[in-house]
Specification:
Elements (H helix, E strand, L loop, with lengths): L1 H12 L2 H20 L2 H29 L4 H4 L4 H8 L13 H16 L4 H19 L12 H11 L24 H18 L3 H25 L2 H24 L8 E3 L6 H6 L6 E2 L16 H7 L1 H4 L2 E5 L3 H5 L6 E6 L7 E5 L11
Parallel strand pairs: 1-2, 1-3
Antiparallel strand pairs: 3-5, 4-5
Helix pairs in contact: 1-2, 1-3, 2-3, 6-8, 7-9, 7-10
């Protein structure tokens, strides 16, 4: 029951949990079949129901709201749709697309980069393989630890067939994107390394040999930490590289939003830069955003609040925030709006704040 509840929570957190739930159910089934204990079958049924509850709930929600149970997988905000939108004609969508071997290499490399810099991570891979071999060959009771490998096939399949890219600074396209996914193999590195050291200590016949094993493990550990400390953790570098221009834009936009009247209302697309509202201390209830669209109304919802506000901003809000290329900039009727400020930052779309109460005859805001 406890394990089933944990899996249900994992499934509500990330789709990785779905794959883990399947792997755990297969493992539990093997235990039930091997034990031939009829009492376990009832517990196994409860376990499977708990593990399947969250995915079933999410599928039902998508079916009810979007009229498509797989909206999260093939809808306009899915990883596949985002990949297709950003794809460059004539070039592969991303490394590993429709290629499981390349997908395997990129995910494992992301895990290595999270462990150590330089060539130190190769030693961690050797320990990982050695620890896995120890489990497989010498202790069947430890086989459940092999479930720590579960992220590997999940991300291989996700990269190859689900439109999930991983960009690494050391491999083409020499960038940072989703490198953090490699963190999911850190428990595997930790456990298999510990098992390898434990196994070697068991073979050591004297104190000198045991001291050598422990010393080597400690040197590897310290050297790995030192290399990561010197270069900064790769996940931190990913976050910094991918957010610095965004932070600059959102900070400047928030500074201008703070100058607006305290009770004013906004029309804004929040999918990309909701952080500006957070910094400005503006609650979402004072905005009309894409969350006000009623997705169950398809193919269009002309009577929805979001659509009505785009068609006639003056009737619904005091100010309009449009970022080049977003739905507000593209679809909102801004002919009668007064532009108050245009914010431009390197690497980000320009942001314009409009006043909805029109212009005077000389073209200036009333």
């Amino acid at each position: 029951m406890k394990c089933g509840l944990c899996l249900a929570a994992a499934c509500l957190t990330r789709y990785d949990g779905w794959f883990l739930a399947v792997a755990m159910c297969v493992g539990a089934l093997a235990v039930v079949v091997k034990s031939n204990n009829h009492n376990l079958r009832g517990s196994f049924a409860k376990f499977v129901l708990l593990a399947a509850a969250s995915p079933a709930l999410w599928l039902a929600y998508n079916a009810a709201i979007y009229r498509n149970p797989l909206e999260f997988a093939n809808g306009p905000y899915s990883a596949r749709a985002i990949e297709q939108k950003n794809a460059t004609p004539g070039f592969p969508a991303h490394p590993g697309s429709h290629d499981l071997s390349v997908a395997f290499s990129y995910f494992l490399k992301s895990a290595e980069l999270n462990m150590a810099e330089g060539n130190w991570h190769r030693l961690w891979v050797l320990l990982l393989l050695a620890g896995t071999t120890v489990v497989l060959m010498f202790n069947r009771r430890l086989w459940p630890l092999l479930l720590l490998w579960t992220p590997l096939p999940f991300y291989m399949l996700s990269i190859a067939y689900a439109g999930v890219p991983i960009f690494l600074p050391v491999w083409w396209p020499f960038s940072f994107y989703n490198v953090r996914y490699g963190l999911q193999l850190l428990p595997l590195f930790s456990v298999t390394s510990a098992l390898t050291v434990y196994f070697l200590l068991g073979f050591a016949r004297n104190k000198t040999a045991k001291t050598a094993v422990v010393s080597t493990a400690l040197i590897l550990l310290v050297a790995s930490y030192a290399s990561v400390w010197h270069a900064q953790p790769v996940c931190f570098r990913e976050a910094w590289v991918n957010s610095r221009t965004r932070i600059a834009l959102e900070t400047e936009l928030a500074t201008n939003l703070k100058k607006l009247p305290h009770n004013s209302t906004l029309l804004m697309y929040l999918g990309d830069h909701v952080g500006a509202l957070q910094q400005a201390g503006i609650p979402l209830r004072r905005t009309i955003n894409e969350g006000n669209h009623r997705p169950w109304k398809s193919p269009a919802d002309s009577e929805g609040l979001w659509e009505r506000a785009l068609a006639n901003p003056q009737q619904y809000v005091d100010f309009v925030v449009a970022l080049d290329g977003d739905p507000v900039a593209r679809d909102a009727q801004k002919q009668a709006l007064a532009s108050l400020v245009v914010i431009r930052t390197i690497g980000q779309p320009a942001a314009t704040i409009y006043w909805t109460h029109g212009r005077s005859s000389d073209g200036h805001p009333r």
